[in-house]
Amino acid sequence: MAARKAGGAKGTDTDNAADHSASDGPIDRREHILQTAQKLFADKGFRETNLNDVAVQLGFRRQAVYHYFPSKEDILYELIDRAGQAIATSAQPTLDADMPPAEKLAEVVRNHVRQLLTNIDVFRIQFSELFKLSGERADGLRQDMADYVHSIAKVIKAGQKDGSFVDIPPTTQALLILGMCNGTTDWYTGGWSQVSIDEIADFAARIALAGVRGAAGRGRR
Question: Domain range holding 206?
Fold first, then answer.
């Protein structure tokens, strides 16, 4: 799902049918609910947060939150979908580009890490909760993730075809690389070191390339 524009002021609920004819009011309020819930899920945990907590944090009546999201699971699904789409959409131009597999893989890895670390709360929530969910919506989100993994595996397969990458199952390599990247959300705090997000993204790309190239790629950059 595409990200929505955030903005507007907090306040108590005055929703009625006329609100939906306003230009940005409902969109702003909905966005505030999503962002506030994201922060609460990250700080308190999804299981420990309820919709009343979100309403109190925003200064809304609880009914105002229910108007947009019938349950906290609906908020969770949307947050996870946004997270996945942000990565997939930002990676697509690189995946579609005509460039050598090594360059393509490196840029996809850089993009992945940059996306993770610039919105770390939502990805921590995704990694914690997605595989605990069941049902058709959860299956759809997991399929989106699988499609993204498959797109990276295709890049690796192309590198194997031209002889630049080692002959290890491409999907396994893609999962290992993404596992390394996703692990940055466990330790990155922004103030832990002087290393910037872009530097971490570049280091991850270099490590990924060293792995897929193996012994045959020693000395390459």
Answer: 73-216
pTM equals 0.81
My answer on whether 133 and 190 are in the same domain is: yes
How many structural domains comprise the chain?
A: 2
Q: Count Cβ atoms within 10 A of the Cβ of residue 147 and give its class: 0-12 exposed, 13-18 middle, 19 or more buried.
A: exposed
- Among 70, 89, 115, give the residue marking a domain's end: 70
The residues near 23 (Cβ < 8 Å, ≥ 6 apart) are none
For the stretch 37-46, pLDDT in tens is 999 999 999 9
Give tens-digit pLDDT for 159-209. 999 999 999 999 999 999 999 999 999 998 866 567 899 999 999 999 999
Q: Are 191 and 86 found together in one domain? A: yes
28's tokens:
């702003």
- Which distant-in-sequence residues (6+ apart) come within 8 Å of 134 by Cβ? none
Inter-CA distances, 148 with 11, 108, 152, 153, 218, Å? 39, 11, 7, 9, 28
Q: Are residues 85 and 101 in the same domain?
A: yes
User: Which amino acid would we find at residue 137?
Assistant: R
Show Cβ contacts of residue 109 under 8 Å, excluding neighbours closer than 6 positions.
Answer: 177, 181, 201, 204, 205, 208
